[in-house]
Write a structure and sequence with these properties.
By secondary structure, this protein is an alpha/beta fold. The protein is 41% helix and 14% strand. The chain folds into 2 domains: 190 residues, Aspartate Aminotransferase, domain 1, CATH 3.90.1150; 253 residues, 3-Layer(aba) Sandwich (Aspartate Aminotransferase, domain 2). Strand 1 and strand 2 form a beta hairpin. Helix 4 packs parallel to helix 13, helix 14 packs parallel to helix 17 and helix 16 packs across helix 17. Bound molecules: pyridoxal-5'-phosphate. The site of pyridoxal-5'-phosphate has 15 residues, from helix 5.
């Protein structure tokens, strides 16, 4: 991240002038939290905005400024902020109790809704987060197959536990990231997505040793590097041929790209699926779902009957009643309405509108993405680009992922904040079913102003 404190940038000055309340909160926070933040994705220099309330596709900061929101609760809010049905369900449950330390009817209804929507979900186990879900999926896979190794794809994100760190943003040689044991990292095999030959080689080379392959089905980092659907089908075929379990990490995609997630959209049946975010309607929660014979490793009677060791799985907030109430309300709406389609349609209109701005302003960038995601290609190598005809699958992944333009992207995000739009750091964002015509108009106007601010500053 560039040193913005000493940078004499009109954009950064404008950001500071617009957000004095956030600046003072950030100062306080810097005495409490490393970098003043509680989630790495919220790190931005000189500081991030402090938000007090949100509604639908918008949120308001401590200075009373309104933003079109493309963070979307880190992807949890397909229905936007404070959907009235979800709020009512949570309020009603609050009156009844937040934790029973006992089984409850809501967990049954919640799981029934998951089963009804996610094609491969024969059994469900709730966790408290997506990270816990992928941790459990990997443990299940290793226990089920008796094999140690895990295939992961470079740049794919599956949470922050020890098995998922190398090869995400660094350590692409598979060495352990700091604090992780050699033996843990050593059992992870990193592979490039969309490289069918490389995958086939890896499966051959380690035949009989690999428990599972886990993938973000729409591509690394929620689609920043899109997968080729042909590769996903090859992945399913090749893993099955080698007795390797396929885990779809649908923590972001689940209930978003389609009600049944990427597995419905692409017509592929994984062995295990990890879920979180939308699953719990904007509250904390996660789940592993999938084949009964695999999840049976969590079953007291089945494991005992089969003479197998059961996988232990406590977890104070597993199936928490508040999350269950929110999740049920949310999944009901997803089943009964066109919420996924609306978010996807808005994503397409947004990408198109932004690309028209880039063309009109002669900026060789492109907005791209699939379904309800937004990504920006800022063209670090100055290749010829027609924004409205941009196809990310035709661009080398190293170029899509390059951080050569980090300083420019950083100013772009700050300028967008000045202009009333909160983009995530990809840079990009995620849309909801509540984003509509006013948000489209405001975002496009904000991008036009942003481009002009960047030009005035000599960045473009
Ligand atoms: C694909 C994917 N898997 C797993 C996770 C981890 O989920 P959580 O943040 O709930 O631990 C995330 C979080 O963004 C994610 O995007």
């Amino acid at each position: 991240m560039p040193d913005t404190v000493s940078t004499n940038s009109p954009i950064i000055s404008a950001y500071r002038a617009a957000t004095p309340g956030s600046a003072s909160r950030a100062q306080q926070a810097s005495e409490l939290f490393p970098s003043g933040i509680v989630h790495d994705a919220r790190y931005i220099e000189p500081y991030g905005i402090y938000v007090t309330r949100a509604q639908g596709p918008r949120k308001w900061d401590v200075d009373g400024r309104c933003y079109v929101d493309y963070f979307g609760g880190h992807g949890a809010l397909l229905l936007g902020h404070c959907h009235p049905d979800v709020m009512a369900a949570v309020h009603a449950q609050l009156e009844r109790g937040t934790h029973f330390g006992a089984c409850h009817e809501l967990e049954i209804e919640w799981a029934e809704r998951v089963k009804a929507l996610i094609p491969s979900a024969e059994r469900v186990r709730f966790t408290s987060s997506g990270t816990e879900a992928t941790l459990m999926a990997v443990r299940l896979a290793r226990a089920f197959t008796g094999r140690p190794k895990l295939i992961r794809f470079n740049h794919h994100f599956h949470g922050w536990h020890d098995h998922m760190t190398s090869g995400h943003t660094n350590h692409f040689d598979g060495t352990p990231t700091t604090g992780v044991l050699d033996a843990v990292a050593g059992n992870v095999l990193l592979c490039d997505q969309n490289d069918e030959a490389g995958l086939a080689r890896l499966l051959e080379q380690h035949d009989g040793e690999i428990a599972a392959a886990i993938i973000e089905p729409t591509g690394a980092n929620g689609g920043k590097l899109p997968t080729d659907p042909k590769f996903l089908h090859a992945l399913r075929r090749l893993t099955a041929e080698h007795g390797v379990l396929l885990i779809f990490d649908e923590v972001v995609n689940g209930f978003r790209v389609a009600p049944g997630g990427a597995q419905e959209a692409y017509g592929i049946r994984p062995d295990l699926t990890t879920l979180a975010k939308i699953l719990a309607g904007g509250l904390p929660g996660g789940a592993v779902a999938g084949r009964k014979d695999i999840l049976d490793l969590l079953d007291f009677a089945v494991t005992k009957g089969a003479g197998k060791e059961k996988i232990a799985h406590p977890g104070t907030f597993n199936g928490n009643p508040l999350s269950a109430a929110a999740g049920i309300a949310c999944l009901r709406i997803i089943r009964d309405t066109d919420a996924c389609d609306r978010a996807n349609r808005f994503g397409e209109e947004l990408r198109q509108g932004l690309n028209e701005v880039f063309e009109e302003e002669h900026v060789p960038w492109a907005a791209y993405g699939t379904f309800s995601t937004l990504e920006f290609f800022t063209n670090p190598e100055h290749i010829a680009v027609t924004p409205t005809r941009f196809d990310a699958l035709q661009v080398p992944q190293a170029m899509l992922k390059s951080d050569k333009n980090a300083a420019l992207v950083h100013k772009m995000r700050l300028a967008m904040l000045v202009n009333g739009v909160d983009l995530s750091g990809h840079p990009g964002g995620i849309t909801s079913a509540t984003h509509g015509e006013p948000e489209l108009k405001d975002t496009i106007a904000a991008m036009r102003d942003t481009v002009r601010m960047l030009k005035a500053e000599g960045e473009l």
